[in-house]
Amino acid sequence: MNAVSANLLKNLGTFLSARTLQMSTVNISPAAAEAGNYCITFDDVEKAHSVIKPYVHQTPLMTCSFIDKLCGRNVFMKTENLQKTGSFKIRGAANAIASLVRKNIKPDCIVTHSSGNFGLAVAKTAKHFNIPAYIVMPSNAPECKKNTVKSYGGVVVECSPTEKARMQKVKSVWVEKGGCFIHASQTAEVISGHATIGFEMLKQNPDLDAIVVPVGSGAMISGITIAAKHIKPSIKIYAAEPEKANDCYLSKCNSHITPVDHPVVTIADGVKVTIGENAWPIIRDLVDDVITVSEEQIIEATKLVWERAKLVIEPTSGVGIAAIVSEKFSKAKGMHDDVKNIGVVLCGGNADVGTVAKILTGV
Ligand SMILES: Cc1ncc(COP(=O)(O)O)c(C=O)c1O
């Protein structure tokens, strides 16, 4: 790293460190773990909403009477599968990068790690600002996602599919290339970018009584929760999660982050990761309940949306739909009869064609 980029890094450190992460440290100030003192505020969400406007779509809230019937409530699907780059991740990536640029900070490059969708979002946004992007991806990430990163001009750097390997690779790329590291889920600007989903949903339908969000690292649900509960304190927020990757469920039960103690194998590749430290205090304090679903339920729900709503979703989006049509949903904490209008985030549409063919044909 040359002196200029070292200095830039220092500056970026100043910019990003106050409430965000530095490289492999997933440390937050102890105060952030206290109730009510979270990594983002509603002001950050409002700011993010105006910062990202030029780079994202305001995706529609769509309905499907067949899904209403199965859920027994009115369902409003936030179609982030139709979002630029095919998922909500562009919101966080655009907020993190555009916020830097607005402060006249143009890094030599952006370095991040991602199993797919965040990598696409960073590659596209970085290209917009003419900044090289290095995306560390696990070797088993879906080919379609690796290819799309490359099509946006991002450089894919593969690593073994373990948390340790990915952080080691990120570190070595960052040391070699310099620039700015953006954590895919725990950087505060990423979380406030994702939060704009909740902000928009309540603008589009102020009558929503609950929002259901698939959870992986928790960046999306924690952001949505801060936005939605500020605008409408009575709203319920539910996390949806595969049974095979149920760390959010376990964490809520144990009141501390509890990773699963086995290798995670689920068709919902977007939510394999464990909740992050910045998202956790918000989930711990403000998310009403967690609904877990089986692989069969995820597959059925994904099929349902393809066939009945005519929307192309990836299986991770099926997790939320599986939750709202499950028996567990009506038994979730706070789910009373007056909770009638349910928002659910269709978080991504980057389906691998081979995987989807298997889902649809059952072969
Ligand atoms: C399509 C999709 N949905 C949901 C998630 C989970 O979001 P989060 O990690 O913010 O909980 C991801 C994360 O990669 C994703 O790609």
Automatic annotation (TrEMBL):
Residues 53-348 form the Tryptophan synthase beta chain-like PALP domain. It catalyses: L-serine = pyruvate + NH4(+). Its cofactor is Mg(2+); pyridoxal 5'-phosphate; Mn(2+); Ca(2+). It comes from the Eukaryota. Its EC number is 4.3.1.17. The keyword Magnesium applies. PROSITE patterns: DEHYDRATASE_SER_THR. Pfam families: PALP (PF00291). Belongs to the serine/threonine dehydratase family. PANTHER family: SERINE / THREONINE RACEMASE FAMILY MEMBER, SERINE RACEMASE. This is L-serine ammonia-lyase. It comes from Clavelina lepadiformis (Light-bulb sea squirt). It is an enzyme of class 4 (lyase). SUPFAM superfamilies: Tryptophan synthase beta subunit-like PLP-dependent enzymes (SSF53686). Keywords: Magnesium, Pyridoxal phosphate.
